[in-house]
Amino acid sequence: MGWEGWISLAVVAAVVSALATSRLPPELVLVGGLTVLVLSGVLGVSEALSGFANEGMMTVAVLFIVSAGLIETGAVYWLAERLFGRPRSVVHAIWRVMGPSALLSAFMNNTPLVAMLLPAVHEWAKRHRISPSKVLLPLSYAAILGGTCTLIGTSTNLVVNGMVIQAADAAVEQAPMVPQQMGQEASARPQAQPLPRGLRLLDIAWVGIPAAVGGIGFMLLIGSRFLPDRSSAQPIQEDPRQYTVEMMVEPGSLLVGKTIEQAGLRHLPGVFLAEIERQGVILPAVGPQERLRSGDRLVFVGVVESVVDLQKIRGLVPAPDQIFKLDTPRPERCLLEAVVSASCPVVGKTIRDGRFRSVYGAVVIAVSRQGQRIPGKIGDIVLQAGDTLLLEAHPSFLEQHRNSRDFFLISRLENSSPPRFERAVVALGILLAMVSLVAVSEWLAGLRFSLGGWFLELRPISMFKAGLAAAGLMLLSGCCRLEQARRALDGRVLLAIAAALGLGLALEKTGAARTIVGTLLHWVGENPWWALVGIHLATSLITEVVTNNAAAALMTPFALATASQLQVNPMPFIISVMMAASSSFATPLGYQTNLMVYGPGGYRFADFLKVGIPMNLLVLVVTAALAPRIWPF
Question: What does the CA dihedral 170, 175, 176, 180 come to, rounded to 10 degrees?
């Protein structure tokens, strides 16, 4: 290893240290490390920029657009309630997230799974007053653990399996014929055990399932205590503005016939159901077993964030009739807050008599006056100077009235556009088609068909290709608008991934990674069990600072060579590389799913270390204990 390797190791060590101890943005630290490698000549410009064209990074980008389509159509909320239900506590919430996620991840690629569930889990946690940082890291860990249970659960397993098949075929072709006259001398010499020509679907399950069960159990009993409690915003109950908003049960909706409890309207965070108006009769103090009827008008009192969430419950629509008379299609509108000034022409008049919709092209959804509830219907409220109005209007309202003397202040609420519920089925169909396409293509890969002299061989479709097609369909079908797609692309996460890939390339190019592995294997000697532990530790270390697939590609030849040198069964070493390369828990750098939850969860590098290092050790112990017993040396 030359000076380039030592510089690469020093830069990676400095980056890891800075990520673990400083509060600098991770993308800034990673790009800084990449800059040092470029300026020192370790990496060329094209090599440093190769991460920005990496298929893995671009896969995450297109999956952001797919997720945006699920959010904009409201499909994500339906998905979350069906999968995760109602948690009774934080630990129960972690179980509700990890159980289904691990099961699904065993039979589909874990990267699109996390991309699909990330927005659902985030919104589900907020709705149930749980900090997203308590459940997003368990989501990533569950997807990783589930991926180790089958051969198709993660691309890492497929990479290792492909290299094993290639090595087995090469060994058959290169095997020398033993001369018959050598007889006893040749048979007395120890021979390396033959390589299997690939693994079956559930071979790794003998180790993967116990590791997944142990990992989930650890997170529930111990790991949950070390998860941070970071809310992206101030607790909603501290917001002083209390709005009164009327919502109507849409005729023919799924809410009709359900009780308040069943409809999920009983324990909404930051808002409560004050009363129901049914055919001119007021029902105060609504009980949890009261059943909803078509056309019921529900009066809620709560803070603005919770009022926004009410708009996203399928089956509830704003009660004011004026809302449906706006010219702009409802999915293209947004919610805005505006403070009424003394010069506003509707001051002293009711909202109905002041013809607010006709004058401003906007409809008042709710009114807040000095943080207190205003009784009565929205249209009957007499506006006063200083009232804060929650409006539904086209986004252009902000520009048109920003400098108007009628309002003191106007601000737009982020992510407040009403979901396109009518396209939710289309969005879910696109998502299922994407996942099925990848899974089925991996199952059928290698099959050949003869068509009139032409031979057709099926090949697996990459997640990037399937995701790119799904993102295009989301845009073409109207499930996701172009503006929403642009906002969904998290540049900070993508920049961090691209820079991390550049650092990993430096370790590979300079031979630093191989030097570390060779030194580690030299220490363990010729004991097969210690060699297995050494291979696992080396793979685990590399996958934390490079990537899972790079670690698998780098360590598989070492594992096969070690088994051949020791004249032992290669299967425990193959399984160990699969488990270690996939099990990246201690840093956000080694696995895409960790990077995907890093920003939305508000995590710091140290959060991964606290929970991830014990998880890595747990997988090591399970693998080292079971693999040699299932496939004896």
Answer: -160
Identify the CA nearest to 131 among candidates 232, 262, 12: 232
Beta bridge partners of 245: 300, 366
Around Cβ 396, how many Cβ atoms within 10 Å? 10
Parse the chain into domains and list their residue ranges.
3-156+201-229+490-630, 236-412
Answer yes or no: are the C-beta atoms of 292 and 266 closer than 8 Å: no
Q: Name which of 570, 516, 607, 438 is nearest 13 in CA terms.
A: 516
Distance CA(588)–CA(499), nearest Å, equals 13
Q: What's the rounded Cα separation, in Å, for the pair 108 and 432? A: 11
Residues β-bridged to residue 457: 448
Q: What is the pLDDT of residues 482-495, one digit of tens each?
A: 888 888 787 777 78
In this predicted model, what pLDDT tens digit does every residue of 338-350 receive, in sequence order?
A: 888 888 888 888 8
Q: How many residues does the chain have?
A: 633
Ordered DSSP codes for 149-195:
TSTTSSHHHHHHHHHHHHHHHHHHHHPPPPPGGGHHHHHHS--PPPP
**What CA–CA distance (Å, rounded) separates 272 from 130?**
18
- Structure-token match 């079971």, residue found: 626
pLDDT band at 371 (very low <50, low <70, confident <90, very high): low
Answer whether CATH 3.40.50.2300 is correct for domain 236-412: no
Whole-structure pTM value: 0.65
Distance of CA 264 to the CA centre of its chain: 25
Q: Considering only CA atoms, which of 423, 321, 446 is closest in space to residue 76? A: 423
Determine the pLDDT at residue 452. Answer: 67
Phi, psi of 107 (to 5 degrees): -120, 5
Q: Enumerate the β-bridge partners of residue 301.
A: 244, 272
pLDDT at residue 575 in the model? 92
Nearest to 434 by CA among 216, 112, 152: 112
For residue 515 the two structure tokens come to: 């030097």
**Among candidate residues 299, 334, 346, 338, the one with its CA nearest the CA of residue 319:** 299
pLDDT of residue 48: 84
CA distance 570 to 168: 11
**pLDDT of the residue at 491:** 78
Q: Is the pLDDT of residue 11 over 50?
A: yes
Q: Which residue has the tokens 């051949």?
A: 564
Q: HEC states along 536-572?
A: HHHHHHHHHHCCHHHHHHHHHHHHHHHHHHHCCCCHH
The span from the CA of 366 to the CA of 535, in Å, is: 62
User: Which letter, b or e, does each residue of 307-344 get, where b requires 16 or more Cβ atoms within 10 Å of its Cβ?
Assistant: bbbbbbbbbbbbbbebbeebebebbebbbbbbbbbeeb
